[in-house]
């Protein structure tokens, strides 16, 4: 397909993983990005008493991790940095709750307040004699391994020591995620077209049979998620998901890193080519009737 495009025998090319593939360029071509309705996240096991039951620690993680650097260094800018569990561009998304700025000073204050203080000799954060050392689990995708290593370097800045452990996706899913036998894990989550966060973040989905792999449980969050999915009133749903995003920003159940993007290479004279968020690549043609050629 690439050779056909470069040889003038094709007029378009779809790149599902542009961060891993050189994107063609030229005076007669244009590249259009489309955000996927799926995010990449550092999941934190909220039931892990030693570290992540405390929301101050989880919020500190979110403030330390540099999403813009991840987007540029790991994804070649084919990632939309975001901390939101609702896809940017969705009717339910609110930018006011999507905080991506790095704030090391606040993160360190939160860790101190949670009792995790730096050891005078080692610089490693400790509490009650225990060092803050965790393992980030991931599959053996080189991109995810590189992502884990970058996150580890960022957390080291605040005295948290991280080991990155890769394995096959099957082992990651069955031995660590389903059993919740992990501390932190890099996982991609496909949200789908509807912003309903029930399956990923409602407490009914705790346990091996459920998809709430972060072990997140909050009564207020459950209530607004339930009302949001039960109502057919767009106004009610929007209000419930506004409250959900507000709760999420405060409690930081895990660290959303961003939303990967597809790349579409099109003729340079194609006009009015705009993509909404895509659940599936085929949706790129949903607005093709609006496309024109200059």
Instruction: Average the pLDDT over all residues and give the rounded result.
Output: 90
Q: What structural class should be given to the helix and strand makeup? A: alpha+beta
- CATH homologous superfamily annotation of the largest domain: Dipeptide-binding Protein, Domain 3
Tally of contiguous helical segments? 9
Would you tell me which CATH topology of the largest domain applies? Dipeptide-binding Protein, domain 3
Secondary-structure element series: HEEEHHEHEEEEHEHEHHHEEE
Report how far apart the termini are: 24 Å
Strand content: 15-25%
**Highest CATH level, the class of the largest domain:** Alpha Beta
Helical residues, percent: 25-40%
Total domain modules: 2
Give structural notes.
The protein has 294 residues and is an alpha+beta fold. It has 2 domains: 2-33 and 264-288, no CATH class; 38-195 and 256-260, Dipeptide-binding Protein, domain 3 (Roll), CATH 3.10.105.10. The chain has helices at 2-6, 55-64, 67-73, 104-113, 142-156, 169-177, 198-201, 219-230, 234-251, and strands at 13-15, 29-35, 38-44, 79-81, 117-118, 125-127, 130-131, 133-139, 161-167, 184-190, 255-267, 270-271, 292-293. The strands form 3 sheets. Strands 1, 2, 3, 4, 8, 9, 10 and 11 form an 8-stranded mixed sheet that branches. A 3-stranded antiparallel sheet has the order 5-6-7. Strand 6 and strand 7 (130-131) form a beta hairpin. Helix 2 packs antiparallel against helix 4 (104-113) and helix 8 (219-230) packs antiparallel against helix 9. The model has no long low-confidence stretch (mean pLDDT 90).
């Amino acid at each position: 397909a690439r050779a056909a495009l470069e040889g003038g025998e094709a007029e378009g090319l779809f790149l599902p993983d542009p961060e891993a593939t050189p994107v063609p360029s030229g005076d007669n071509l244009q590249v259009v990005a489309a955000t996927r309705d799926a995010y990449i996240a550092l999941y934190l096991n909220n039931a892990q008493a030693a570290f992540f039951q405390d929301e101050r620690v989880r919020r500190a993680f979110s403030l330390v991790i540099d999403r813009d650097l991840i987007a540029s260094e790991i994804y070649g800018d084919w990632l939309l940095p975001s901390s939101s569990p609702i896809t940017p561009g969705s009717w339910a998304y609110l930018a006011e709750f999507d905080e991506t700025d790095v704030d090391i000073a606040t993160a360190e204050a939160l860790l101190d307040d949670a009792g995790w203080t730096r050891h005078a000799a080692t610089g490693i954060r400790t509490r009650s004699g225990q060092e803050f050392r965790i393992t980030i689990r991931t599959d053996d995708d080189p991109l995810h391994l590189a992502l884990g290593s970058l996150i580890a370097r960022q957390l080291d800045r605040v005295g948290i020591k991280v080991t990155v452990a890769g394995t096959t996706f099957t082992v990651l899913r069955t031995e660590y995620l389903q059993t919740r036998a992990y501390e932190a894990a890099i996982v991609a989550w496909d949200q789908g077209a509807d912003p309903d966060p029930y399956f990923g973040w409602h407490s009914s989905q705790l346990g091996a049979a459920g998809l709430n792999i972060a072990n997140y449980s909050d009564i207020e969050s459950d209530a607004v998620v339930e009302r949001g999915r039960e109502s057919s009133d767009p106004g009610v749903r929007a209000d419930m998901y506004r409250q959900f995003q507000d709760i999420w920003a405060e409690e930081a159940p895990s660290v959303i890193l961003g939303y990967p993007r597809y790349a579409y290479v099109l003729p340079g004279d194609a006009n009015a080519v705009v993509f909404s968020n895509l659940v599936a690549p085929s949706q790129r043609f949903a607005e093709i009737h609006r496309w024109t050629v200059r």
